[in-house]
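Pinned message: reference record for CHRD domain-containing protein
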Amino acid sequence: MKTTAFAASCLALISVVTANPIFDGGKKTNAWKGGKDWNPDQVINGTVPTPGEPGAIGYYDFGINSKLDVICYDIVLKGVTGDYQSPAKTATHIHQAVKGASGPPRLAFPNPLPVSDDPKVTRYSKGCLKGPFTTGILRNGTDTAAGFTVAQIEANPAAFFCDSHTKKYVPGVLRGQLA
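Predicted structure (tokens):
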């Protein structure tokens, strides 16, 4: 596999956010890191690889407090161009699916926004979400986040991935499997 700046397309450092008071005194009890599998080949449409935007890179930093059902996020996208697009309430998500598969969104984060009008500028989204969660996607009349808790990510992070979608890259501009 060719190594490029996009090879770390969705580099995620999942760690407990110690600067936020909702986390138990800064105990780092659920820290995961991923790296080598964060590349454009991870974007999937069904089971078909559908590479995302060339040259784009994303960083996702998540902190989880499963006792309070809270996830804090710091999402940074670089080289992502165009408008977001998704049938969900936002276009930036955590989906439930193993590597090489598609799955339903379980969390919908506010889309990262640029700090200037330059389309190549870095986009940011930072904050916290507390369950119960909603995605705006209904399956059989039920939101895909119904019954989901962040403890599920904590129990099996490899069963989830993060991504963002744009009008040009509807299956995903970037994808990174949690590990």
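Pinned by admin. Summary line: The chain has one helix and 14 strands.
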